[in-house]
Automatic annotation (TrEMBL), chain A:
This is Extracellular solute-binding protein. InterPro entries: Bact_solute-bd_prot1, SBP. The keyword Signal applies. Pfam families: SBP_bac_1. Residues 1-30 form the signal peptide. The keyword Signal applies. It comes from Phytoactinopolyspora mesophila. Keywords: Signal.
From TrEMBL, chain B:
Belongs to the binding-protein-dependent transport system permease family. This is ABC transporter permease subunit. Residues 1-27 are annotated as: Disordered. It comes from Phytoactinopolyspora mesophila. PANTHER family: ABC TRANSPORTER PERMEASE PROTEIN MG189-RELATED-RELATED, ABC TRANSPORTER PERMEASE PROTEIN YESQ-RELATED.
From TrEMBL, chain C:
Belongs to the binding-protein-dependent transport system permease family. One of its GO terms (biological process) is transmembrane transport. It is found in: Cell membrane. It comes from Phytoactinopolyspora mesophila. Coiled coil: none annotated. Residues 96-309 form the ABC transmembrane type-1 domain. Residues 1-14 have a biased composition (Basic and acidic residues). The lineage of its organism: Bacteria, Bacillati, Actinomycetota, Actinomycetes, Jiangellales. This is ABC transporter permease subunit. Keywords: Cell membrane, Membrane, Transmembrane, Transmembrane helix, Transport.
Length: 440, 300, 321
């Protein structure tokens, strides 16, 4: 009996809703429906394109879309921008109702979360409109899983150490050589900076995050958080070692107290971080945050490779699609949607507006075309990515469905450890257990 | 007996307290103390607003680095920048919100009071059951009904229109206000409508001529709360409206913040101050009616 | 509940005139029919609304609570599995503890403050409307982004509270970010928005016919007697209303916890309210089936509390009808 009812709910035909819809005089209430697109077969096509970001991104995206509409006069694009926090709520709801936008912006593990559930179009069906041969392989692999290319990276990003040379100077500590430094060096440097600077300044921000655990585990065992076939790969012992280290750092004052760390975890904006306020020597972050962090701190922040990269069994760093574009599987206009994505990622004209706003372009030709126009902060990111792109770990494994929860699990266990409520050992075990149950 | 009930709110109780000259000194000291306490308490209450005001006139980069209320540098351009930062000038979003809010207030005032009159004053089959159902609808968390609701509105082709936000208000779905007015109406002496009934008034006239005027404070409360809640409501406006041209104030405000990149904090706080204007104004205007109870409308 | 008994107290408190203790006799026959028709007329919009917009989605979520539903693919019927899972879900049990603590601490505090200030302000204070507006301001701010940031400005490690403590030589800590104190700051946040119940109390106080007080004056009653014998009894329907709604509201507290903890319920789940957990399950990890089951359980819990409230109300709430 399950399926008889079950299948009804997808695409918005709940038995319940349908009953009430039938009893309602629909024609009298139909609204001005501007958004659901025109009928297939007509020449005029309206695409819906959803993305997250701030007002500046809205402005340059609109400029790129104007250029697109000029090139394809029969296609018009309705944008649906939103802030990051609300974006995925609305997306999930609209997918549940069978009413999602044609072109969807995704990030992190979301392409797989959506792709494995049949929400996204297999992009090989529109390869003609959307060629991918110019796009960096490693970046492309972010959207490739279960043998299907589900999304195209908007740009490339990497997770690394942001440092504030001014804080190093003030503490009389030289910047480390990031091609050879170890985690012990990281601890010592953090400790030394904390000791030689005012009380409110720290050598390092608490480094724990799901991304760092992934990196640390890869350095130590060759495997990150997940295995290829969607199981948990990180060992409880690895996580235990990690937390043993960070707990000592917090207790010795190299990193902030448990309470301050918990406070910072709740506020993600770059301006609110210790690095953004010029109060930290080192902080793990995404390379595309560099501009915001520099602006906020007013200091000439630099990016370094993660500690331990040259000492582990494998490199821990990786290249990640900062965002990616996908097409809704139920879209009425998959070909036009593909044209739009193609224009945004493969066309230098679009890139002239968007530049590196959605990450350093993954298309080599496009990157070359815009390089002279990059501002100083963005050029620094591009240089860093170019420098590390040959060293990073090529075996990227996208988190399986359910893995978007890992971030919160790590954050919660980190609080428990730092506040002394559980031991690093127990935290390691619980990490494996809870992530396993989240991705089952 | 009810003719000379006219009395202003401020003096209602004070007047009746007998005071001897000897106690006047103490009473003045007590009054000063009372006001000192009320003002100190008021400052605690006002702190958020002062902080926001102060942040809205600081240069963005100082907001988090300098916690003090008095800015060391002023930057009034946040208001100009904020007003023009988004795809439309900010008044566009104020107007969008205004349309939804105005319709919601009218809808709630009318339909919730009608339902409340029935529950409070009329006898009919199934009253207890319906009342329980009405209360139950206050109890279910929105995050779970939102998906079936979205599916329903999507079937009606109402996504990206204001219908999902307005039509429910005309169908008395804000049970909170029904319950509020039921409680108010029930606390009114019943002999008021009995008298009207003896004069030959039908229920419609009793509702409109007797109960509604006496319910001014409850209606004012309903209008004020509806205004504020709808104005501040973020989640349903976010879910149901996708076209940026139709965005409302809370949704538009969010686009100043980008947890993934640079946020325009100064303009955000400046526009948050602007967004407070209409609700505070409405509260100031509406609160006059809060004090118009039985005492001043009179029972004629 | 609709018919609550009349109480003699109301009369002792000085209800003049009628001395009547019963509602007028129930209309019969023709009259009753007419009254019933009138009632359905007044309730017509509500019937349409409840039928179309409320019942459907509620039944929809009831159905979903027996399924495995990821939002992204079709729901699959799994019977009682979701409810079984609730028995063993430790984070759920923790969130129940958090929520109950919050309800039982913050609701009485907030209502007491709201009632005290409403009464205070109602008694001819010069500048009444100014104070009332100022006290209402925090409630206007709603759940704006600003509140989250502001709350850290006050209760953060370097926040206002600690600055004040430092003045008297006490080394403070990060209140909002400590697992032992984070919930208390949310209680304060809730108490701080006492403006809404205060406004309702004020409206209620206004509705007490002044004739009662005048009658009491004639009898020579003092302020205290009038407060206990007139104000409080006649205000009981409004106190009851606020109590019921604040309890329901406290059980459903979401936005405050959401914005203050950034959606995580942290630190260490110490502010993981029940609804926040529902949200995390439903939208965060795509388990809308389980989230629906959680929501239905919450509905039952709240309904239970509300029923107890209504039952108890027969003993202390006085209606004028």
């Amino acid at each position: 009996m399950s399926n008889r009812y079950g299948n009804n709910l997808l695409r918005g035909r709940t038995a319940v809703a349908a009953v009430f819809v039938a009893t309602l005089a629909l024609s009298a209430c139909g609204g001005d429906d501007a958004s659901t697109g025109t009928e297939a077969g007509t020449d005029e096509v309206t695409l819906r394109f959803s993305w997250w970001g701030n007002d500046e991104r809205a402005r340059i995206t609109q400029e790129a879309l104007d250029a697109f509409e000029a090139e394809y006069p029969h296609i018009s694009v309705d944008t649906e921008p939103l802030d990051f926090d609300g974006y995925f709520d609305r997306l999930a709801t609209s997918v549940a109702a069978g009413n999602a936008p044609d072109v969807i912006t995704l990030g992190g593990a979301y392409p797989r979360e959506y792709g494995d559930r049949g929400v996204l179009l297999d992009l090989s069906t529109v390869a003609e409109q959307l060629p991918t041969d110019q796009i960096d392989e490693a970046a492309l692999s972010n959207g490739f899983f279960s043998d299907v290319q589900y999304s195209i990276p908007t740009g490339v990003n990497t997770y690394a150490m942001v440092v504030n040379p001014e804080v190093f100077d003030a503490a009389g500590v030289p910047l480390p050589d990031d091609t050879s430094w170890t985690w012990d060096d990281f601890i010592d440097i953090a400790q030394e900076i904390s000791e030689n600077t005012p009380d409110d300044t720290y050598g390092a921000v608490d480094p724990t995050s799901a991304d760092v655990m992934d990196l640390y585990s890869r350095q130590h065992t060759g495997a990150g958080l997940y295995t290829e076939d969607g199981e948990v790969a990180i060992a409880a012992e690895t996580a235990r070692d990690w937390w043993t280290m960070t707990k000592q750092m917090s207790e010795s004052g190299a990193t902030p107290s448990a309470s301050l760390t918990a406070e910072l975890a709740g506020q993600a904006a770059p301006e609110q971080t210790l690095m953004g306020r010029g109060l930290a020597g080192m902080q793990f972050d995404w390379s595309n945050q560099l501009t915001a962090l520099r602006g906020a701190s007013g200091a000439d922040l630099q990016m370094l490779r993660a500690p331990g990269e040259s000492h582990g069994v494998a490199p821990g760093m990786w290249l990640q699609a900062s965002q990616s574009y996908a097409i809704y599987a139920e879209s009425d206009h998959p070909e036009e949607a593909a044209l739009l994505i193609d224009f945004l990622v493969n066309n230098a004209e679009a890139a002239a507006f968007i530049k590196a706003d959605r990450g350093i372009p993954a298309n080599g030709e496009v990157l070359e075309a815009i390089t002279p126009e990059l501002d100083e902060d963005t050029a620094a990111q591009a240089d860093f990515i170019a420098a590390v792109s040959d060293e990073v770990n090529p075996d990227l494994i996208i988190g399986p469905t359910g893995s978007t929860e890992t971030r919160l699990i790590v954050e919660r266990l980190n609080d428990e450890v730092l506040f002394d409520r559980i031991s690093p050992e127990e935290a390691g075990e619980r990490l494996v257990r809870e992530v396993t149950s989240a991705i089952e | 007996m009810a003719i000379d009930l006219e009395k202003t709110s401020e003096t209602a109780a004070a007047e009746t307290e007998p005071r001897s000259p000897a106690r006047r000194g103490t009473s003045r000291r007590r009054r000063l103390l009372k006001h000192a306490l009320l003002i100190a308490f008021g400052f605690v209450m006002l702190y958020p607003l002062l902080w926001m005001l102060s942040s809205s006139i600081k240069p963005s980069e100082l907001i988090f680095r300098e916690p003090s209320l008095i800015p060391s540098a002023f930057d009034f351009s946040n208001y100009v920048t904020g007003w023009n930062a988004l795809a439309h000038p900010f008044h566009r979003y104020l107007l969008n919100s205004g349309v939804i809010v105005a319709a919601s207030v009218i809808g709630n005032l009318l339909t919730c009071s009608m339902a409340a009159y029935a529950f409070a004053r009329l006898e009919f089959r199934g009253k207890k059951v319906f009342f329980a159902v009405m209360l139950a609808t206050v109890m279910l968390p929105i995050h779970v009904v939102i998906v079936p609701q979205y599916i329903l509105f999507s079937q009606l082709d109402w996504i990206n229109t204001y219908y999902p936000l307005i039509v429910p208000k005309f169908l008395a779905t804000d049970a909170f206000f029904i319950f509020l007015m039921v409680q108010f109406i029930r606390s009114l002496p019943r002999e008021l409508d009995d008298a009207a009934r003896i004069d030959g008034c039908g229920h419609l006239r009793i509702y409109w001529r007797v109960i509604m005027p006496l319910c001014t404070p409850a209606l004012a409360t309903t209008a004020i709360f509806t205004f504020i809640w709808v104005w501040n409501d973020f989640f349903s406006q976010l879910i149901f409206i996708t076209d940026p041209d139709m965005y409302t104030v809370p949704v538009a405000l969010r686009t100043f913040v980008d947890s993934q990149g640079e946020s325009a904090w100064g303009p955000l706080f400046a526009m948050s101050m602007v967004a407070l204007g209409p609700i505070f104004g409405f509260f100031l205007a509406g609160q006059r009616y809060l004090v118009r109870g039985i005492a001043t409308t009179g029972i004629k | 509940m609709a018919e609550t008994t009349q109480h003699a107290d109301t009369e002792r408190a000085g209800e003049p005139g009628t001395g009547q203790r019963k509602s007028p006799p129930r209309p019969r026959g023709q009259l009753a029919k007419r009254e019933g028709r009138a009632a359905y007329f007044f309730l017509a919009p509500w019937f349409v609304g409840i039928g179309l917009i409320t019942i459907g989605p509620i039944l929809g979520s009831l159905y979903l609570s027996f399924t495995d539903y990821s939002l992204l693919s079709s729901p699959e019927w799994i019977g009682l599995d979701n409810f079984q899972r609730m028995l063993e879900d430790e984070r759920l049990h923790n969130s129940l503890r958090v929520t109950f603590t919050y309800v039982f601490v913050s609701v009485p505090l907030q209502l007491a403050l709201a009632l005290a200030l409403a009464f205070f302000l109602d008694k001819g204070v010069r500048g009444l409307s100014l104070y009332r507006s100022v006290y209402y301001l925090p409630s206007l701010l709603g759940s704006s982004v600003a509140i989250a940031i502001l709350w850290r400005q006050i209760f953060g490690t370097e926040g206002l509270v600690n600055q004040l403590l430092a003045l008297v030589g006490i080394q403070g800590q990060g209140w909002v970010s400590h697992p032992d104190h984070a919930l208390s700051t949310l209680v304060v946040l809730n108490v701080w928005t006492f403006g809404s119940p205060m406004v309702i109390f004020l409206a209620g106080l206004r509705q007490i016919p002044t004739m009662y007080y005048e009658a009491a004056d004639v009898d020579g009653a003092n302020g205290f007697t009038k407060f206990w014998r007139i104000t409080i009894p006649l205000l009981t329907p409004i106190i009851f209303f606020n109590l019921v709604l604040q309890i329901i509201g406290a059980f459903q507290t979401f936005t405050q916890a959401f914005i203050v903890s950034g959606g995580s319920g942290g630190p260490a789940d110490s502010t993981l309210f029940y609804t926040l957990y529902i949200y995390q399950r439903g939208f965060g990890s795509f388990e809308m089936g389980y989230a629906s089951a959680l929501a239905w359980f919450l509905l039952v819990v709240i309904a239970g509390f509300t029923a107890v409230n209504f039952w108890a109300a027969k003993r202390w709430v006085h209606y004028g009808d």
